[in-house]
Design goal:
Structural class: alpha/beta
Order of helices and strands: EEEHEHEHEHEEHEHEHHEEEEHEHEHEHH
Bound molecules: adenosine-5'-diphosphate, magnesium ion
Helix content: 25-40%
Strand content: 15-25%
Strand order of the largest sheet: 5-6-4-1-7-8
Distance between the termini: 10 Å
Number of strands: 17
Shape: elongated
Largest sheet: 6 strands, parallel
Length: 395
């Protein structure tokens, strides 16, 4: 990120620093149910507080209508949790750019923190409205973006405002972008990419982009059946996308041409219903009975995948190998997660909301080199797309 300055080069003392964070946290009974995202922003906030900045935090939460205040989407609980985590007072403004925000920002002393109310209470945020960007910019002397999870959106707080103030990347933003682009630009070889999840159509661009980078491409999850179909297999009632069979065949041809080892399941766990208590049977991947659906990779496949993963110098994983949310279909995802965790010498990067949830479920998060906090944003970056929130920081 040579052309993107970080907060290390910001002389913040006494300055009002307007920081876009991702406090889009789940709430339950008026309190924060999971504070992972708030914790992820702490290094940046603590650094600015320590430097004596006047820290102005802004975020969205959920999907309010955009027509003003809605209690269910207030950031007040997030501000309260932040105060606990920081062990200091945190002010809260009951509006975003209105009189209360202006007064609370004006009242800040060096090292003080205020959280503004939900950006999306104003429809102008998502429209990247120039007037709203200007009203936000009036609350700061410098701008910091630490909200990697929304960097793929061109909104007033992620794009518009960055052009109006000296702009910097926070530590989380910097770490996400440099880790993911570093992996793509100079992967340690062999580079093993593992792709799963539900649909080929969701992931085709990721598959295509990784085909140009990886030495081994492992395919699991619901998407594998469209590939198996392209090979002429009978996939029964498994998740399949008939319109994507041709694209899957093209991907297999491309792998061959590039010398990429494309691995598909050789056996699958099939069920008579999409249910936790379904009857299951392990069958060959090319002969799934008509009335059964594949809901996980089989043990022989899991062993072959684990073997390939053990030989990797770097690993990128997106997408569960099966319906890991149900106990009878979690073994494949668990085996792959354990294999990635066991390869201590490799750089291991996990991206995607459900994949990260699976790794957490198995208690293996600490064994991974890097777990991306940005679902959609990480995937767009891996696909080779420019992220508006990142581009806006370039100098
Ligand atoms: P991520 O969020 O990590 O990018 P996706 O959203 O693409 O992953 O896919 C996750 C979902 O895919 C999970 O909810 C999982 O149950 C589902 N899935 C995995 N394998 C199958 C399968 N064989 N059949 C149907 N759904 C599957
Ligand atoms: Mg998902």
């Amino acid at each position: 990120m040579a052309d993107i300055p970080t907060i290390d080069s910001l002389d913040a003392r006494g300055k009002r620093v307007l920081v876009r964070v991702d406090f889009n946290v789940p709430l339950a009974d008026g309190a924060v149910a999971d504070d992972t995202r708030i914790r992820a922003a702490l290094p940046t906030i603590q650094k600015l507080v320590g430097d004596g900045a006047r820290v102005v935090l802004m975020s969205h939460l959920g999907r309010p209508s955009g027509e003003g205040y809605e209690e269910a989407y207030s950031l007040a609980p997030a501000a309260a949790r932040l105060a606990k985590l920081l062990g200091r007072d945190v002010a809260f403004a009951s509006d975003t750019v209105g009189p209360d925000a202006q007064a609370k920002v004006a009242a800040l002393g060096d090292g003080d923190v205020v959280v503004l109310e939900n950006l999306r209470f104003d429809t102008r945020e998502k429209k990247n409205d120039p007037g709203f960007s200007q009203e936000l910019a009036a609350l700061g002397d410098a701008y910091v973006n630490d909200a990697f999870g929304t960097a793929h959106r061109a909104h007033a707080s992620t794009a518009g405002v960055a052009a109006l103030l000296p702009a910097y990347a926070g530590y989380l933003m910097d770490r996400e972008v440099s880790t993911l682009t570093g992996m793509l630009d100079q992967p340690k070889r062999p580079f093993v990419a593992i792709l799963g999840g539900s649909k080929v159509s969701d992931k085709i661009k990721v598959i295509d982009a990784l085909m140009d980078k990886a030495d081994v491409l492992i395919i699991g999850g619901g998407m594998c059946f469209t590939f198996l179909l392209a090979q002429g297999a009978s996939v029964g009632a498994s998740l399949k996308e008939d319109d994507w069979v041709e694209r899957a065949a093209e991907m297999m041809a491309k792998a061959k041409e590039r010398g990429v080892r494309l691995m598909l399941p050789v056996d699958v766990v099939a069920a008579d219903r999409f249910a936790e208590d379904a009857s299951t049977v392990t069958v060959s991947a090319d002969a799934i009975p008509d009335d059964m659906m594949g809901l996980d990779i089989g043990p022989e496949t899991a062993a072959a995948y684990a073997d390939a993963i053990a030989g990797a110098a770097s690993v990128f994983w997106n997408g569960p190998m099966g319906v890991f949310e149900m106990a009878p279909f979690e073994a494949g995802t668990r085996a792959v997660a354990e294999a990635v965790a066991a390869n201590e010498a490799a750089d291991t990067i996990i991206g995607g909301g459900d994949s990260v949830a699976a790794v957490n479920k198995f208690g293996l998060a600490d064994a991974m080199t890097f777990i991306s906090t940005g679902g959609g944003a990480s995937m767009e970056l891996v696909q080779g797309e420019a992220l508006p929130g990142v581009e806006a920081l370039r100098r």
